[in-house]
Write a structure and sequence with these properties.
Shape: globular
CATH topology of the largest domain: Aminopeptidase
Number of domains: 2
Number of strands: 14
Order of helices and strands: HHEEEEEHHEHEEHEEHHHHHEEEEH
Largest sheet: 5 strands, mixed
């Protein structure tokens, strides 16, 4: 935030008794002094005029860009000003978001868009901390007799209510956590965002190879050859810049051998991508290298999420960060997985979710996680966000 310039020094009138009448031979000082004063006035006026002209020229250059992108700067400024005066919508000082990543590829046919990514983002406004918690897509809930990744698809089949209402209500009740906003982001939208950022930099903690990654450009309605349906994707560990295409493969991969093929590893990868996007968005260097990025991001937001959360609410949330000039701190959390001796059913490793043996008579014969003790699970969630 820019500080207003201060004026140093002050002018005090001299006592009348100390003022001497000007000497005739020094009248040229008046002329010089007046000339300097006039020059300063003219220079200052010229500076204001030049600044005004430059601002007008900049506006003339900016206006076509705004018009082409269907963006309205005066309205956005008015909304931002209104947001500055608003208190953010919170519960216990937090605003909680449910983020749903869905696969809406046309090549998938009429298959309902199962949620590929489910994450809770909790923003503590005064502390300016963002806590991310990934939820395993295979988490089974007895109350609805399905895995949570199917809830959004079921909600879309209910025309009398918003498509996100079922999943939002169910997740909120399960976590015992109020959800203030639900964001549905498609693979295309995520790809657009990462493309705008010219890729993201991630330090991959582990490498893996997925021999069965589904090709996005193959129509499963007409193609059944596994060689054509799938491709092999490989990632090496270490610091690297991922393109949008590579980043999507990194977060979606599910069929690698070992630990990287688990839901837990996918959740970690999703969080790494979110952190990488946030890191690039909060770097001044990003915008220095690409001055038009701010307009690109505004257009992306306007086209995709302006109806979900307005500029006024965004400003009300980040106002403390603007005042303190401190960027929000991102924290990641994960659900501990309980391990048991399957023969004795004794708990070997404590946790709040558990993977039971696949059974044809339970959970519709699916591979699932369950919540063995709901109060303990909810207490863990509360601990994450306190």
């Amino acid at each position: 935030m820019l500080s207003a310039p201060t004026q140093h020094g002050s002018s005090h009138p001299m006592p009348h008794s100390l003022i001497q009448p000007p000497l005739p031979q020094l009248n040229w000082l008046k002329i010089v002094g007046f000339s300097i004063f006039l020059a300063l006035i003219l220079s200052f006026s010229l500076l204001i005029l030049t600044a005004g002209i430059l601002s007008w020229v900049a506006w003339l250059k900016l206006q076509p860009e705004l018009t082409a992108r269907q963006l309205d700067l005066p309205i956005a400024v008015a909304q931002a000003k209104a947001g500055w005066e608003l208190a953010p919508i919170t519960t216990d000082g937090r605003q909680n978001w449910l983020i749903l990543g869905v696969d809406t590829l046309a090549t998938r046919g009429d298959v309902p868009p199962l949620t590929d990514t489910m994450m809770v983002a909790s923003f503590k406004t005064q502390a300016q901390t963002l806590t991310l918690l990934s939820l395993p897509r295979d988490l089974w809930l007895d109350g609805v007799q399905t895995k949570i990744n199917a809830l959004y698809a079921y909600g879309q089949s209910k025309p009398a209510e918003p498509a996100t209402q079922l999943v939002t209500t169910t997740i909120s009740q399960t976590l015992n956590l109020p959800i203030h906003r639900t964001f549905v982001i498609s693979l295309d939208q995520l790809q657009q965002l990462i493309n705008l950022l010219d890729g993201i930099e991630i330090n991959l903690p582990a490498g893996f190879t997925d021999p069965f990654f589904p090709r996005p450009d193959v129509d499963v309605r007409v193609e059944h050859d596994p060689v054509k349906l799938y491709e092999i994707v490989t990632f090496e560990p270490g610091l690297q810049t991922l393109s949008a295409d590579r980043a999507l493969k990194y977060v979606r991969s599910r069929h690698s051998a070992g630990a990287e093929g688990t839901d837990t590893a996918r959740a970690i990868r999703q969080q790494l991508v979110i952190e990488a996007i946030a890191s690039k968005l909060t770097s001044l260097q990003t915008f220095r290298q690409k001055p038009t990025l701010i307009l690109d991001l505004w257009q992306w937001y306007h086209q995709n999420f302006a109806e979900t959360i307005g500029i006024s609410e965004i400003v009300s949330l980040i106002k403390p960060a603007i005042l303190t000039k401190q960027l929000p701190i991102i924290q990641t959390k994960s659900l501990a997985i309980q391990e048991r001796n399957y023969q004795t059913n004794q708990i070997v490793t404590p946790g709040v979710i558990f993977h039971p043996v696949v059974s044809k008579t339970k959970y519709q014969g699916q591979w699932v996680y369950i919540i063995p003790d709901l109060p303990i699970f909810q207490a863990e969630i509360k601990n994450f966000f306190d």
